[in-house]
Amino acid sequence: MADNEELAAAFEGHRAHLRSVAYRLLGSASDADDAVQDTWLRLMSTDADEVVNLGAWLTTVTARVSLNMLRSRRHRNEEPVGDAWPGAADAAVSGGTGGAAAGAGGPAAGADPELEAVLADSVGRALLVVLDTLTPAERLAFVLHDLFAMPFTEVAGVLGRSEAATRQLASRGRRQVRVTPAPATAARLARQREVAEAFLAASRGGNLAALVAVLDTDVTLRADAAASPAGTPVVLRGATTVAGGAVAARGRAGDSFLALVDGAVAILYAPGGRLDTVLALTVADGRITSIDVIADPGRLRQLSLAVLPG
Fold first, then answer.
1. Structural domain of 23
2. How many Å apart are CA 168 and CA 24, to the nearest integer?
3. What domain count does the chain have?
4. Residue 74: pLDDT band by 50, 70, 90 thresholds?
5. Is 216 in a helix, a strand, or coil?
6. DSSP letter string over 18-68?
7. Is residue 94 predicted with pLDDT exceeding 70?
8. At residue 90, does pLDDT exceed 70?
9. CATH of the domain at 19
10. Are residues 277 and 163 in the same domain?
């Protein structure tokens, strides 16, 4: 494999796998491409004849590059993406269509929104969002072992930790990502999920009557200052008012999905798999009695997120 053309051909044979690993570790198509490119550059500066198993070597290097990127990312402040849900609600209440607010926003400049959406869907948006709550080491241990079946001995080598410590990291990540509720709790979550799915489906379809039907007559929506374009908290009351806001914000419903938030079913708005806003729902007697719209980054970081059990 001393010939550069042969080496390049061999690398291309592994590119899809490397990109898949990097994307699950980083949650960003552009970052994943950067990690794979960095891996190629490192391969070119290495004596390839000394590489016994090229696939394993490339995966290890891609994982290490991604780990470094994850660690550096934790030192950056993330900015909210786009206008918040109550912005459309404000427009609906005041008689506007809310169309501009509902369609505003999107992935960071330079990203391909359609590509990010396709990739996020292929992995599972809820999983991407929950993975972001793990430490870099937990995320790497969980992704490499649980999603790509890499032996713990090799994962430990990437992390530079003992095999026992690596097993603990993967276990902690697994407990945070995948919750197994008790039967009684599972039944309660199933009822919440049915109501939340009905609300989200009606929002996507702009079905005002269906939204009113799933909302309690005296439902209250409270949104924090970060969720409001005006920068002040928003309070909406009554099924018709809240439903009107949801209809106006239906453009965002397409990038929203259900997940567990602090042990209850909630709606997450996460374009490209990046968490932007949480709609925490309170459900009683088959209807939504209150909605807490959370967009403040500090509050979002304090939430306990998990993938809904199947």
1. 4-75+125-177
2. 20
3. 2
4. low
5. strand
6. HHHHHHHHH--HHHHHHHHHHHHHHHHTS-GGG-S-HHHHHHHHHHHHHHH
7. no
8. no
9. 1.20.140.160
10. no
- The band of 309, judged by pLDDT with boundaries at 50, 70 and 90, is confident
* Whether 153 and 273 share a structural domain: no
Distances, alpha carbon 67 to alpha carbons 25, 259, 265, in Å: 8, 26, 31
Helices (H), the chain: 4-26, 29-44, 54-73, 85-93, 99-103, 113-123, 125-131, 136-142, 152-159, 163-177, 183-205, 208-214, 239-248, 250-253, 297-302
Q: What tens digit of pLDDT does each residue of 239-294 get?
A: 999 999 999 888 888 889 999 999 999 999 988 778 899 999 999 999 999 999 99
Last residue of one domain, picked from the residues 139, 157, 177: 177
Evaluate if residue 102 carries a pLDDT over 50.
no
Whether residue 111 sits in one domain with residue 246: yes
Same domain for 132 and 92, yes or no, is no
